[in-house]
Design goal:
367 residues, alpha/beta, seven-stranded mixed beta sheet, five-stranded mixed beta sheet, 13 helices, 12 strands, globular
């Protein structure tokens, strides 16, 4: 009989709305302790990234093209798994399961339905590893928003009960509040997504590395005020959003009123929009946090982090202060979700997503 106290390895695969690649994390679980063993990001091929980005903004596609994308994303996730194993000198036989988030192409709690592509059957068969996936739909079937999932994992990872807030800044930003053994959270709005799109269109780069471009511009307060009138920002939690709302088409309607705006000023204003909507979200929490931990790609945007710290009278740190690589947190979450699914454990999302009950999330596909 196997020893239940021996460490078990899981792989988490995640690609968010920023589409900057597939984050792959190899995580060891021993009893209830987890340790990140290896982490890498594998960029999408340019044509695949372009197709996915277009689909995120304009969710219309014929069925043959959808099926093609479903397979190509699964192939990319499978390849990422194998490359992670090769780089870390582990074999597929040593991994208990993969947790694959897939690539969200449509998320509509009002229907309710959420669609992630990268079919787990291909991942399981191509890697030879049991795969858990499709994590959002069970919560939605119980009348939840299906997102964000991260707060439940943040509670597991940081375990703090002292009023710590955790902010993940990916394409979209979300807040987790940890206090008295409970977690609550919601999406605040744009994270890096709008800034990334603006950089691709006007600065010939994929993103504003370290916020170096934004810091050279001035915030246009009139434009910022207009952007902040978006009804989503003032809507109460539970709430979730994505690039189907916050994309360049949404932004261009506002920019049209400011045809003479300098490009650096526009990017600086988008940076400030992320800051201000995060501040608005923090102000909506039950109490003022005692500290703020940042994870996701936005943890590297020094301009954004500095602007946040200027507005707050409690410390702003990245999750690196806990010894956890900021980029790896969401992929680690997917590994944890796989472990929970294999053990048939519900995820505590009821007070986060508004679901009628906590749900066992996802399905299982065998090699």
């Amino acid at each position: 009989m196997s020893n239940p106290h021996l460490a078990r390895l899981y792989i988490g695969l995640m690609s968010g709305t920023s589409l900057d690649g597939i984050d792959a994390a190899l995580v060891s679980f021993q009893d209830e302790q987890l340790e990140l063993k290896a982490f890498k990001t594998f960029p999408y091929a340019d044509d695949l990234k372009s197709q996915l980005n277009q689909l995120n903004q304009t969710p219309h596609i014929d069925l043959k093209a959808l099926c093609d994308l479903e397979y190509r994303v699964a192939k990319a996730f499978s390849d990422a798994t194998q490359q992670l194993l090769n780089a870390s000198n582990y074999s597929a036989a040593e991994v208990t399961a993969i947790g694959s988030h897939g690539q969200t192409i449509f998320h509509a709690p009002d229907i309710p339905m959420s669609l992630q592509i990268g079919h787990p059957a291909f991942i399981a068969k191509h890697t030879g590893i049991t795969t858990a996936a499709d994590f959002r739909i069970d919560d939605m079937a119980n009348k939840g928003q299906g997102a964000p999932l991260a707060p439940a994992f943040h509670q597991k990872l940081f375990g703090t009960t002292d009023g710590t807030a955790v902010v993940n800044i990916g394409g979209i930003s979300n807040i987790t509040y940890l206090d008295n053994q409970k977690a609550l959270g919601f999406d605040t709005g744009p994270g890096n997504g709008l800034m990334d799109e603006y950089c691709e269109r006007f600065f010939n780069c994929a993103y504003d590395a370290n916020g170096k471009i934004a810091i050279t511009g001035q915030v246009n307060t009139a434009l910022l005020s207009d952007l902040m009138k978006e009804p989503y920002f003032s809507a109460p939690a539970p709430k979730t959003t994505g690039k189907d709302l916050f994309n360049y088409d949404w932004l261009s309607g506002f920019l049209a009123k400011y045809p003479a705006i300098a490009k650096e000023d526009a990017l600086s204003t988008l940076n400030q929009l992320t800051v201000d909507t995060l501040i608005q979200g923090l102000n909506a929490l039950p109490a003022q946090p005692k500290r703020l931990l940042i994870c996701g790609g936005g943890a590297e945007n020094n301009t954004l982090i500095s602007r946040l710290q200027t507005r707050l009278d409690f410390p702003v740190e990245t999750t690196q202060s806990f010894g956890i690589q900021p980029h790896a947190v969401e992929a680690m979450m997917c590994a944890w979700l796989a472990k929970q699914r294999l053990n048939n454990r519900p995820i505590a999302l009821k007070q986060i997503t508004g679901a009628t009950q906590d749900s066992i999330l996802g399905g299982i596909w065998h090699p």
